[in-house]
Amino acid sequence: MKNNSFLSRFGEPLCRYCETDKRLNDKDLFVTHFIHHWFSPILLFFMLASSGTLAVGQTQVFFDNFNRTALNTGSPTTYSITVTGGNGGVDITSDSCLELTNDISADTNSNGVVYVSGLTQSFSSTYNQTLHADTAAVEWTFNFRFNRSSHPSGMSPGSYGTAIILASTNGIFIGANAGNGYAIVYGGSGTPNPIRLVKFSGGLTGTLTTIISSGVSDISAVNNYASVRVRYDPHGDYWYLYVRDDGATKWSDPSTGVTSQKGSATIDTTYTSTVLTNFGFYWAYGTSANQTSRFDNFGVRIIPSMVLSGLELFLTSDSCQADTNHAVLFPHAGMGNGTLYAPDDWSYNSPVLTFFVVPKGTQSLSAAEFIVNWDTTKASLAVKNGTMFDFLATQRIASGKLKIDVGASSNINVLPAAGKYLAALNFTILQPGCDSITMTGVDARYVTDDSQTKIQTAAHSGVIKFYLGDFTSQNNYTTCGDGKINFDDIVQFALAYFSNKDSTTSGYKSKFDIGPTNSDGMYFSMPNPDGQIQFEDLVTFSMGYGKSACHQLCKTYSANIVLSAQEPAFHGNGTIVVPLTIAGDVERLHALSVSTQYPSSQWEYSGYEKCGEMNNDDCFMAATSKGDEVVLDAAFIGTPYGLSSKGTIANLIFKNRSDEKNGTVSIQSVKARDAENKELSLNIGQKEISEANAPLSFALAQNYPNPFNPVTIISYQLPVPCMIDIRVYDILGRDVATLEQEIQGAGTHQVTFHASHLASGIYFYRLSAVPIQSQDADWGAASHGRRGSFYSMKKMLLLK
User: Fold this and answer.
1) Can you tell me whether residue 278 is helix, strand or coil?
2) pLDDT given for residue 188 in this prediction
3) Beta strand pairing call for 561-565 and 682-684
4) For 472-481, which contacts have Cβ atoms below 8 Å and span 24 or more sequence positions?
5) Using an 8 Å Cβ cutoff, are 552 and 531 in contact?
6) pLDDT at 453
7) CA–CA distances in Å: residue 351 to residues 332, 527, 743
8) Bond before 640 cis per omega within 30 degrees
9) 613, burial (CB in 10 Å: exposed 0-12, middle 13-18, buried 19+)
10) Nearest to 381 by CA among 373, 390, 391, 389
């Protein structure tokens, strides 16, 4: 309905909120309007000013209630209308609101977008098109209605979605030349749809990034009438979003009473220092006829900020530092309780890491409240009062949520300074891992004798990185970790390996004693130090190397693996080599500890060498000898994988004390783990075929199956221990795969060739076997029998 009273001729059309009684004449209506629009605000001013809640001095810089016959008739700005497809159009309805529709002419409809763009230069001069340059907060208020019963699905043609563009770099909202800016959008975020404050790049069909959203339905029905209030405060670049559900029949005034805040105040500066020249209203539609989106009472005003700015809260490891550089906690010297064996050592007995809540800024404060959030499975929290105030109280909100109130017992405001902190958060570590510590619900106050003012405060999160194996940092080998398990740590760990607290205290430090992790041997729990740096510690260290501890793992698994000590090979220079070989389900093998026994009266242990897949930088190997026992430990570092094929993993090397060539090495015990520290059942194998029962000659069999796709098995036999080399070549003679390259004992062997990475065609495989030399001159004979080297090549066919 249009208002035809004489008041409208003064350029001030009556708002519909006064039109409650249509029987009033012009005179009565004038009095009613005067009381409503002039006297009531004055009375309200004194009422609110006395309570300290009125934003004094606010200025309306733009308002359009679409109370006219057509969009460009007496409009407060020059609007432009754009239709990108279908049968879209714009109208002002009899209810005096702006309506965007997909059926303006009742023609056959198709998918499209229609939008209206206005100029922010039409706003009064107290508004700055560069938002950050405004001297006070900017607030937008408006009504809108998505006039469909189904959920809005997005801003693209055919999706049905609506938007109010608050400020944009140009008046193009879709397509190649579309601008950037800020908008309220309804649609395209799942169902039920929230109303979202977003920043957009490349228009409404470009990149939309949510700044604030409640994450749930903001109105009870998708086509309800809604009121929205958006505020941007240049003092701190904070954005606020408020939504009110006006129900199913009509709108209420959006400039008052919209107090339901969605999400929390959020900082965004992406386009606040950019000139934003346009605003507008947007409707994306599909093919269903008579679908509309409506808007009304769009207003923009400047409101002096009632919130002080200039305060930040930091979680920091140093009470004198307020920055993000100190926002990560690592293990440190003397951590925990218990006996320490050196100044740079620590104990895992209830280790405590402390964050200080340190304020920073130019604004003094008298009280603060905040909620600390953390993972209770990784740590427990105890709070101590800080140095800034004399009052502290805590309240448990939920698991992992503790509300903390601090303040002065009198009306005193304290300015942040070095060494002043609100509280000390002492986290007792319960298990290894990465724990993100956040502060939410922050409320800081500045008080005087008769009032208090909220301080706009930004809170910064912190992280606890407590990994078993994080002993050192690159620049500090003696005191603390750095949140990573890497080369710096393995250097120190290797130096301490095989030390113990009873006999080698100079190398032993309890911080290296990280296994067993508990009675079940599981990782990702606190260690149970046993006074020795050995296999259990190696397994734990290797699992954490290069990655983060994140969850507990079970320890139940069995695999059929056989470990064997082969027949010794006696070299002419008195060196004896005993290969340790492995067979079976070796793919899960990640770590191994082998205890062997040798004839110490005849032999002298002189070392070991890595072989096969363990002969690389990813494998840590160490061995120690005591009496007639050699213990060899090995683990893959920084990889979740184990072996990919069987074969020799190491050679034990001895010196012969006599000229006799006899003696043997026996395996006494074996421990094996997979990459999740699960126990692997491992059998001790008998020595492979002795030379007396070995094959009489070398042989290389035809692969089976042949042709193959993509896996085949190659078998061969060795009459004596040999250094073997098996390779695959293509038809052009190029080396495409090395299958074996190690020492193997006498006997019949086989290797599996996986050719999934190769193309179909003819390939050749070649065996080179060189016997391990001995003092016997017959070993050098040039024959293909038991004493000479052997070379053989065969052809195979890969068909895919």
Assistant:
1) strand
2) 84
3) parallel
4) 473/330, 478/333, 478/343, 478/344, 479/332, 479/333, 479/344, 480/330, 480/331, 480/332, 480/333, 481/330, 481/331, 481/332
5) no
6) 76
7) 10, 12, 48
8) no
9) buried
10) 373
pLDDT value of residue 672? 86
CA–CA separation, 514 and 531 (whole Å): 10
Q: 3-state DSSP helix/strand/coil percent for the chain, to nearest 5?
A: 10, 40, 50
User: Half-sphere exposure (CA, 13 Å, Cβ side) for 129?
Assistant: 15
Q: Which pLDDT value is given to residue 344?
A: 75
Q: Which is nearest to 157 in space by CA: 294, 282, 296, 295?
A: 282
The phi, psi pair for 132, rounded to 5°, reads -65, -20
Residue 14 confidence (pLDDT): 34
Give pLDDT, residue 647.
82
Please say whether the beta carbons of 143 and 125 come within 8 A.
no
Angle separating helix axes 487-496 and 535-544, nearest 10 degrees: 180
* 8 A C-beta contact, residue 573 and residue 579: no
Q: How far apart are CA 313 and CA 235, in angstroms?
A: 17
Strand partners, 167: 182
Which residues on neighbouring strands pair with residue 604, listed in sequence order?
Answer: 655
Peptide bond into 705 cis (omega under 30): yes
- 103: number of Cβ within 10 Å: 18
Q: What is the pLDDT of residue 524?
A: 66
Amino acid at site 332: H
Tell me how far apart the alpha carbons of residues 338 and 335 are, in angstroms, rounded to a whole number: 9
Which pLDDT score, from 0 to 100, does residue 686 have?
53
CB-based contacts of 626: which residues, under 8 Å, 6+ apart?
none
pLDDT score for 29: 39
Q: Is 380 exposed, middle or buried (0-12, 13-18, 19+ CB in 10 A)?
A: middle
Two structure tokens written together for 210: 């949510």
The token pair that represents 439 in the structure block: 């502060």
* Separation between Cα atoms, residue 786 and residue 793, nearest integer Å: 19
Structural contact between residues 708 and 799, judged by C-beta atoms closer than 8 angstroms: yes
Instruction: Please tell me the pTM assigned to this model.
Output: 0.47
- How many residues are present in the chain? 800
pLDDT of residue 761: 94
- DSSP bridge partners of 236: none
pLDDT at 454: 80
What are 308-335's pLDDT values in tens digits? 777 999 999 999 999 988 999 988 877 8
Distance CA 323, CA 342 (A): 32
Query: Phi/psi of residue 221, each to 5°?
Result: -135, 145
Contact 472, 489 (CB under 8 A): yes
Question: Rounded to an integer, what distance in angstroms lies between the CA atom of residue 270 and that of residue 234?
Answer: 13
Q: Which two tokens stand for residue 327?
A: 């926002």
Q: If DSSP codes are grouped into helix, strand and coil, which group holds residue 122?
A: helix
Instruction: For residues 502 and 495, give the distance between their C-alpha atoms in angstroms, rounded to a whole number.
Output: 17
pLDDT (0 to 100) of residue 56 = 43
Cis bond before residue 707 (omega within 30° of 0): yes
Answer for the pair 119, 129: CB distance below 8 angstroms, yes or no: no
DSSP state for residue 777 in the 8-state scheme:
G
CA distance 505 to 524: 27
What DSSP element (H or E) covers 538?
A: helix 535-544
Dist. CA 190–CA 187, nearest whole Å: 8
> Residue 270: which residues within 8 A CB-CB, separation 6 or more?
180, 199
Token couple for 354? 């402390």
**Which parts of the chain have pLDDT scores under 70?**
1-57, 106, 236, 305-307, 337-339, 343, 449-452, 475-478, 518-524, 547-560, 640, 686-694, 773-787
Q: What is the DSSP string of 417-458?
A: -TT--SEEEEEEE-SSEEEEEEEEEEEEEEE-SS-EEEEEEE
Q: How far apart are CA 618 and CA 303, in angstroms?
A: 63
